[in-house]
């Protein structure tokens, strides 16, 4: 009985570590995107890579985001109220939307949207998480057919 309890604790511990690692990786990538959005600049992997030590996943992720950056912005703009411009949205909100779009390419939309909303709730002190939820939900349904 005690052995089963220890096994269960180990499994839960492994799951928690896995979830925390994924959360930390997401926040790290969003932080890099945010640094460029803050100055209304297109993401540049060259600038990121020269100042940071990144693992293979982070490099591949940032390279793909850099390649698809303009596409991600165009897609997001389709779902933003016509009275708003992309640049009027908070830079961190933009960074979360961009990364959310990237994740929608390969992950379950409900998980992606939930993660992006949770990150927004932690780092943005207003109701922007609702905006992020709406935009990513529309993108997942109308662009990615999820």
From TrEMBL:
GO MF terms, alphabetically ordered: RNA binding
Any single biological process term in GO: regulation of DNA-templated transcription
Domain NusB/RsmB/TIM44: 74-140
InterPro entries for this protein: NusB-like_sf, NusB_RsmB_TIM44
Alphabetic keyword roster: RNA-binding
Classification via SUPFAM superfamilies: NusB-like
Signal sequence bounds: none
Pfam families linked to this entry: NusB
Entry keyword annotation includes RNA-binding: yes
Residue ranges that the Swiss-Prot or TrEMBL entry lists as coiled coil: none
Protein name: Transcription antitermination protein NusB
Originating organism: [Mycoplasma] phocae
């Amino acid at each position: 009985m005690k052995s089963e309890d220890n096994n269960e604790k180990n499994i839960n511990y492994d799951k928690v570590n896995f979830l925390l690692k994924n959360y930390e990786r997401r926040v790290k990538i969003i932080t890099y995107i945010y640094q460029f959005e803050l100055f209304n600049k297109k993401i540049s992997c060259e600038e990121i890579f020269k100042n940071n030590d990144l693992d293979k996943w982070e490099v591949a992720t940032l390279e793909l985001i850099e390649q698809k950056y303009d596409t991600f912005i165009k897609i997001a703009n389709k779902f933003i109220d016509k009275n708003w411009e992309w640049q009027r949205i908070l830079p961190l909100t933009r960074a979360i939307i961009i990364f959310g779009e990237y994740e929608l390419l390969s992950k379950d939309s409900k998980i992606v949207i939930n993660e992006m909303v949770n990150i927004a709730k932690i780092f943005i002190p207003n109701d922007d998480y609702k905006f992020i939820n709406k935009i990513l939900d529309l993108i997942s349904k109308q662009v990615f057919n999820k």
